[in-house]
Q: What sequence folds into this?
């Protein structure tokens, strides 16, 4: 079984990757279509909520 800290680390890595994608492709000459940008932004919001849940879970368990 994968422990909660490992899951939290993966969620945080995914947030960083999606934010990097947004920095690279949300404006300028490499800009992607708006629906792709909105999907990435939504994904970040969901991942942030998951991160918050796992942080609370890890803190409860010590």
A:
């Amino acid at each position: 079984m994968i422990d909660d800290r490992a899951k939290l680390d993966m969620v945080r890595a995914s947030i960083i990757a999606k934010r990097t994608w947004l920095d690279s492709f949300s404006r300028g000459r490499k800009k992607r279509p708006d629906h792709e940008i909105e999907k990435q932004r939504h994904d970040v919001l969901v991942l942030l909520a998951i991160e918050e849940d796992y942080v609370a879970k890890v803190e409860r368990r010590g």
In short: Helices lie at 4-25, 34-61.
